[in-house]
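Board notes (copied after class):
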Amino acid sequence: MSKTITLRLSDENYNKYKRLAERDNRPISNFIETAVKRFIEDNIYVDEFEMEEIRNNAELNKSLKRGLSDMKSKKGRLVE
């Protein structure tokens, strides 16, 4: 189920987003939602090339496995 939120924008930003949304022939809410999704995908998730680098880094994988093992055996402490 979709949710409604209130978003306060300056007139300048509202007009900018509205023009960009109209250029794509879609509502401003869809434009903002799509922009946020793209931001998250670009900044949170690892792309296929970076993932390949991680998989091929033996030292990193060894360290990750050691950390996982330590976590499972409750060694160490949580650092915030």
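Comment from the instructor: The two ends are 35 Å apart (CA to CA). The helical segments are 11-23, 28-43, 48-56, 58-72.
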